[in-house]
Amino acid sequence: MFDLQKFVKECQLALDDPKPAQRVEAIVKEAIADPEAVRDAFEKADNVERQGPITFAWRDASLSVADVTTPPGLKSPAHNHNMWAVIGVYEGQEHNKFFRYENDELQEKGERLLKEGDVAVLGPEAVHAIANPLPTVSGALHVYGGDLVEQPARSMWNPHTDEREDYDISRLITYVNEMSVTQ
Ligand SMILES: [Fe+2]
Question: pTM of the entire structure?
């Protein structure tokens, strides 16, 4: 049975591993094998920080552990995290587009559709944009090797001009609202 406190503890211990993201990948894979238990644990938890669609079970300078709920039709602009990230979808789907940013130019370099039970590991240099392609809500566990809210030197890309901008959560939400198919 999924235990949120135990899950956070295991992610914290993984930081001592020479390859923390790979260790966390295995922990997330195991957790999302029981989707109802994950959903239930976050819904019932009282010791969490809720920020819109993101529910943080843990957040400090070295680790963020969160549940992310994406409504139908949601689209995000391209952004980086500037730290490793592990995403495990336990409900619905998350479509990922990956980009390369070179010589002031944003170029698409691939895509991946994450379905229930799939886990993606993103390196610190990764640039991605996500979308929920389904008419239903999607849910995913997100673990980052740093503070998702405070991590310095992050970038996002203006979806109208493809120009790089310093990461700004309120402007990012404005872009999400402009890009998303349904509100
Ligand atoms: Fe992201």
Answer: 0.93
